[in-house]
Specification:
There is one protein chain. This protein is α+β, with helices and mostly antiparallel strands. It has two domains: 157 residues, Thiol Ester Dehydrase, Chain A (Roll); 128 residues, Roll (Thiol Ester Dehydrase, Chain A). The protein has five helices and twelve strands. The strands form two sheets. A ten-stranded antiparallel sheet has the order 1-5-6-7-3-9-12-11-10-8. A two-stranded antiparallel ribbon has the order 2-4. Strand 11 and strand 12 form a beta hairpin. The longest helix is centred in the N-terminal third of the chain and has 15 residues. GO terms for molecular function: (3R)-hydroxyacyl-[acyl-carrier-protein] dehydratase activity. Keywords: Lyase. It is an enzyme of class 4 (lyase). InterPro entries: FAS1-like_DH_region (IPR039569), HotDog_dom_sf (IPR029069), Mitochondrial_HTD2 (IPR052741).
C-alpha cells in the first residue's frame, strides 16, 4: 500500500465519518445481570430489580448488533457497517479513558451515544497503522453515567505463514501491594464475548488466529482483561467510589494462560494496577482515580 494512496483513502474516510454518531438503548434486566454475575463467578441472584450496578460495568451493555449477513471474515462487522471503513484489515483494542459520572440500577434503561471522535493514521515500528477513537456517552434518561473514549488499533495483515508482530514488552512492576492469580479459560472468554456480542474469530477460532492473523494461539479479549483488573482493583479500594480510569493494553495474552492481576495501595485517591503474564511481562496498565 503506497503512503499516498493510504493517506488519500484515510482522508476520505475522515471527511465522511468524523463526528458521525448514533444511539443504542439497552434494558438492564435481572436476566442479563444474572448472566453477567455468573460469568464473573459471582452469585447470579445478587442483582435483583432495583439493585445498584457497579458503575464500571456500563461497558457490558449497549453492544452493537450487526446483522449476520454484515459479518466479515474476521468476525467483525464489515467495514462501514458499524465503524468507519478504515483501509487496514486487522483491528484490536488498545486502550481507553473513562469518566464515571453516576450510577445505574437493575431495571433502568441505559442509553449509549456512540461518536466517531478520532481517525489518525500513523507509521509505527510494525508498519502502517491507524488509530480509531470512539467516544461513548452513557446516560439513564437525562442523568449522566459515563463517558468512555475507546481506542482501536488498525494494522496491516501479516503474510501467510508469518507471525503477527508482538511487542516484546517490559517487565511488570514488582512492588505490588496486592495481587491475584487469574486463570483465563476458554469458557470465560466465550461467555464474556457472548455478553458483549463480540464475534472476533481470534478469540475462539484457533486455526484462524494462527493461520490468518499470525498469533501463536487464541487471543484473550482485551475488554475482559480490563474488566477483571478493574474488579480486582475495586475489591482493594476500601469502598471508595471510582470516578475515572485510564487503561492501556501493551501485550497480547493467550486464552488458557494464567496471569497476575496486581496493583499498588491507594494514595491521594489514586491507584495503579497492572496485569503480568506468566513470564512477568507487562500486558496491561491501569490508573484509577477515586472521588
Amino acid at each position: 500500500m503506497s503512503g499516498e494512496d493510504f493517506a488519500t483513502r484515510v482522508a476520505r474516510v475522515r471527511e465522511e465519518w468524523l463526528g458521525r454518531s448514533w444511539v443504542i438503548k439497552d434494558d438492564v434486566t435481572p436476566a442479563v445481570m444474572r448472566r453477567i454475575a455468573a460469568m464473573l463467578d459471582m452469585d447470579p441472584n445478587a442483582f435483583p430489580r432495583g439493585a445498584e450496578v457497579p458503575a464500571h460495568w456500563f461497558s457490558l451493555f449497549c453492544a452493537e448488533s450487526a446483522r449476520q449477513g454484515d459479518i466479515g471474515a474476521d468476525g467483525h462487522p464489515e467495514p462501514g457497517v458499524v465503524l468507519p471503513p478504515i483501509p487496514l484489515p486487522r483491528r484490536m483494542g488498545a486502550g481507553r479513558r473513562v469518566q464515571l459520572q453516576g450510577g445505574f440500577r437493575v431495571g433502568e434503561v441505559l442509553t449509549k451515544r456512540a461518536e466517531v471522535a478520532v481517525i489518525e493514521p500513523k507509521q509505527a515500528r510494525t508498519g502502517t497503522i491507524c488509530v480509531l477513537t470512539m467516544r461513548h456517552t452513557f446516560t439513564v434518561g437525562d442523568r449522566p453515567v459515563a463517558v468512555d473514549e475507546f481506542d482501536a488499533l488498525y494494522r496491516e495483515a501479516v503474510a501467510p505463514g508469518t507471525s503477527s508482530p508482538v511487542n516484546a514488552g517490559q517487565p511488570a512492576p514488582t512492588d505490588a501491594a496486592w495481587s491475584q492469580v487469574q486463570h483465563l479459560p476458554s469458557t470465560l472468554v466465550f461467555r464474556y464475548s457472548a455478553i458483549t456480542w463480540n464475534a472476533h474469530r481470534i478469540h475462539y477460532d484457533a486455526d484462524y488466529a494462527r493461520e490468518v492473523e499470525g498469533y501463536p494461539a487464541l487471543v484473550q479479549n482485551g475488554g475482559l482483561t480490563m474488566q477483571l483488573l478493574l474488579d480486582a482493583a475495586m475489591a482493594q479500594a476500601g469502598g471508595r467510589r471510582l470516578s475515572a480510569f485510564t487503561a492501556r493494553l501493551t501485550r497480547p495474552i493467550s486464552v488458557g494462560d494464567t496471569v497476575t492481576l496486581a496493583g499498588g495501595a491507594v494514595a491521594n485517591d489514586a491507584m495503579s494496577a497492572w496485569v503480568a503474564d506468566q513470564g512477568g511481562a507487562l500486558c496491561a496498565q491501569m490508573e484509577l482515580q477515586f472521588a
